[in-house]
């Protein structure tokens, strides 16, 4: 019989959360810890991610400094985690990079940086985790992060960011088909407007207000409102959900 608690099946599970020092990432790490999981919080900012881990409920959580732009370091990190922990049951890949520019000011470096962290690293991290799960016989779960802009396309310089986010959706579907026979589920969450530094950085107040006015709920989300959906997708409640993209945009995007 299924136990219908929030994090059914997550008690004691090893969960990697990337981008864990960010607004959404720290909320996701806290949600998994509250569900009884052992969190490996990962971020490029070592000091900030250490602070996140120290504040998590429960014991046994760990932090790791990792720059996802260093593709070679991803496989090493996953191997170290697998060896040290005996396996990883969940990956919540929250990390992302956005550079807000006018479209005429976007440089090749802007393109490369955002696609490396948001798309390229997602593929290599997903593959490394999925292969580790497969070899360990773990029927695990991966939750990747896209954006409501994967569908709407964004505007201006955010075209580059959202192009990568669209790629994450397509790629995750393909990986879900590839690893599904091994009992590995791969899904995507697509948040809309979330009250984080990434949203507000470089965004004039009038543009922020205009975006909020377009949301049927009339407000931005708090990070915790995204975190609950991630825990759901990783839990037994979502045991037959794979290859899905969950729209969490307050009605900004409807389909």
How far apart, in Å, are the first and last alpha carbons? 34 Å
Radius of gyration: 17 Å
The overall number of domains is: 1
What kind of sheet is the major sheet? 7 strands, parallel
The assigned structural class equals: alpha/beta
Task: List the secondary-structure elements in sequence, H or E.
Answer: EHEHEHEHEHHEHHHE
- Count of DSSP helices? 9
Overall mean pLDDT: 93
Instruction: Report the top-level CATH class.
Output: Alpha Beta
Helicity range? 40-55%
In short:
45% of the residues lie in helices and 14% in strands.
Task: Give the topology, please.
Blueprint: E1 14-18, H1 23-34, E2 38-43, H2 46-54, E3 62-65, H3 71-85, E4 90-93, H4 108-136, E5 141-145, H5 149-152, H6 158-179, E6 185-191, H7 197-200, H8 205-213, H9 223-234, E7 245-248
Parallel strand pairs: 1-2, 1-4, 2-3, 4-5, 5-6, 6-7
Note the main attributes of this structure.
about 260 residues, alpha/beta, Rossmann fold, seven-stranded parallel sheet, globular
Please explain how this structure is put together.
The protein has 255 residues and is α/β, with parallel strands linked by helices. The protein has one domain: Rossmann fold (3-Layer(aba) Sandwich). The protein contains nine helices and seven strands. The protein has a seven-stranded parallel sheet with strand order 3-2-1-4-5-6-7, sandwiched between helices. Strand 2 (38-43), helix 2 (46-54) and strand 3 form a beta-alpha-beta unit. Helix 4 (108-136) packs parallel to helix 6. The longest helix has 29 residues, at 108-136. 45% of the residues are buried.
């Amino acid at each position: 019989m299924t136990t219908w608690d929030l994090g059914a099946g997550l008690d004691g599970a090893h969960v990697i959360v990337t981008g864990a020092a960010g607004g959404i990432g720290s909320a996701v790490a806290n949600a998994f810890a509250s569900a009884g999981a052992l969190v490996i919080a990962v971020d490029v900012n070592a000091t900030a991610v250490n602070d996140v881990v120290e504040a998590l409920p429960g014991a046994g959580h760990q932090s790791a400094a990792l720059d996802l732009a260093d593709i070679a370091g991803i496989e090493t990190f996953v191997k170290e985690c697998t060896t040290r922990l005996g396996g990883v049951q969940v990956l919540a890949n929250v990390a992302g990079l956005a550079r807000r520019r006018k479209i005429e000011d976007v440089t090749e470096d802007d393109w490369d940086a955002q696609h490396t962290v948001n798309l390229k690293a997602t593929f290599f991290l997903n593959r490394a985790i999925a292969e580790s799960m497969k070899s360990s016989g773990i029927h695990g779960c991966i939750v990747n992060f896209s954006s409501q802009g994967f569908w709407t396309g964004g505007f201006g310089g955010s075209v580059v960011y959202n192009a990568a986010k669209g790629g994450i959706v397509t790629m995750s579907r393909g990986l879900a088909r590839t690893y599904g026979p091994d009992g590995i589920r791969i899904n995507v969450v697509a948040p809309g407007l979330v009250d984080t530094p990434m949203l507000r950085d470089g965004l004039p107040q009038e543009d922020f207000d205009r975006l909020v006015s377009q949301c049927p709920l009339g407000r931005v989300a708090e990070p915790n409102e995204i975190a609950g959906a991630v825990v759901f997708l990783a839990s037994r409640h979502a045991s037959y959900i794979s290859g899905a993209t969950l729209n969490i945009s307050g009605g900004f995007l409807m389909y």
